Amino acid sequence: MTNAPTPQPLKRRNPFTRFLDTVEWLGNFLPHPVTLFAILAVGIVLLSGIFGWMGLAVEDPRPAGTRGVAEDGMIRPVSLLNADGIRMIFTNLVTNFTSFAPLGVVLVAMLGVGVAERSGLLSAAVRCMVLSAPRHIVTVAIVFAGIVSNTASEVGYVVLIPLAGAIFYALDRHPLAGMAAAFAGVSGGYSANVLIGTIDPLLAGITQEAARLIDPDYVVVATANWYFMVASTFLIMVVGSLVSIFIVEPKLGKYDSSRAEPTILDKRMMERLSDDEKKGLFWALIALTGVLGLMALTLVPEWGVFRNPETGDRINSPFFRGFVVWILIFFIATGYAYGRAVGTMRTDRDVIDSMAKALASLGLYIVLVFFAAQFVAFFGWTKLGAIGAVTGAEFLKDTGMTGPMVFIFFILMCAVINLSLGSASAQWAVTAPIFVPMLMLIGYAPEAIQAAYRIGDSTTNIITPMMSYFGLILAWATRYDKNLGVGTMIAIMLPYTTFFIIVWSSFFILWTFTLGLPVGPGSPTFYKP
């Protein structure tokens, strides 16, 4: 007679974990992401017709004469249910897909990543980096790398997030926890950075134009928020790491590899490096040095071909706007150098085959992008996003608050608007003409207003399908869990959004109003009308 096994006590789940379980359960009632975007696209078409028939209109906050502003100064929904709308849909269906910005970036980057992956470089590099690293230091490093990757445009989305999944799998940890940590850094901490990125001059230009509605000579520079963003980098790194370690990873639990695509699981990920692999990494390092030297030659000297040809600027320049090409060159050069050294890359055919296999793995993503691109295009055509942004801004204005706490409501309003209007510059172009003059008139400087906006814009990027790269992240994640749904993805990322909003907003109030620190060099907190 055998003894029955002693039952193990159930692990107690705290209220927050149970709340996330509920979010996941409810969210997974949603259909497949492809079906969801198709339904949303049809829903936008129907809503545009209904709101157009109702005669809905809001006052456009942008100055008269600005491109896109109607003669009567009103924003009205554009119906896609009439003859003109139906013709627009049919004639632009293909171009909506092919011109969807993230699609080209992902496809080009994956050509290079495929070479590095098939040569064995990524596997060897990951094992070299992490097998002897302390467990929690890896999490911190991934979140930090995600934050600073914003300087290099899309590199965080197309390289770091899937790499983080591979790193966690190599450490026998849940790969989705690694991807979540990277996603939180790249997108949730989008506005934090130690360097000035490409988004800084863009937002500064929009803020300046809005400020000049009140003060025609006001100037906002690209470094307007630099001090606060540098400090925010380390704040987000700490908060994101703690959420990953103490909330997200415990909730995910032990990884079940039976739910993954077999092709993504590398059984050698826990093996020590062989002598051939060490030799390959050495030659990959030589290739890396050559690529970095070439990059420096195009940017650092006064005659650098990739500096801004008009201003000589290094940040707002072709170098960063075309950074995806450097990603391609980087991975091809280092992947081929490694492959030649270890014998996995011998001819041009090996390189071509690796590129083809990399693109073949993106089938689901390409299907998802087709429908997502239609939804985003329809949403823009109908102007429903702009109407929602103006309506929300007017609501905040009607609260009548004038003290520093108005920024808490402002941040929350921007976070909510970001759920439907995902582009940072597009959202700010619509809302800045409302918020900047309004808050200037009650005594706050445009630089401080812009810093607060960036908090709200960043924190909800990771829980909205409207974010351009959300579909890509979902496609990467389903390779580790084929049953993953939108609800699970949102439930994984929701703790980051919650803590980022609470801690980052509190930090902003502490920084600007309690400590009286400027958000950037020469940036005032207060404005005297």
Notes on the structure:
The chain is 65% helix and 1% strand. The chain contains 21 helices and 2 strands. Strands 1-2 form a two-stranded antiparallel ribbon. The N and C termini lie far apart (88 Å). Residues 1-10 have low confidence and may be disordered.
Computed over alpha carbons, the radius of gyration is: 24 Å
Output the number of helix runs: 21
Morphology: globular
Work out the helicity level.
Answer: 55-70%
The main sheet orders its strands as 1-2
**Assembly classification:** single chain
The end-to-end span amounts to 88 Å
Largest sheet: 2 strands, antiparallel
> Which class best fits the helix and strand makeup?
mainly alpha
Compute the number of strand runs. Answer: 2
Low-confidence stretches: 1-10
Write a compact overview of the structure shown:
The protein is mainly α.
List keywords for this structure.
529 residues; mainly alpha; two-stranded antiparallel sheet; 21 helices; globular
What's the helix and strand layout?
Elements (H helix, E strand, L loop, with lengths): L14 H13 L5 H22 L3 E2 L14 E2 L7 H16 L2 H19 L1 H10 L4 H14 L6 H16 L4 H14 L10 H13 L14 H27 L22 H25 L18 H4 L1 H20 L5 H13 L2 H20 L1 H15 L7 H13 L5 H18 L4 H14 L10 H11 L5 H29 L15
Antiparallel strand pairs: 1-2
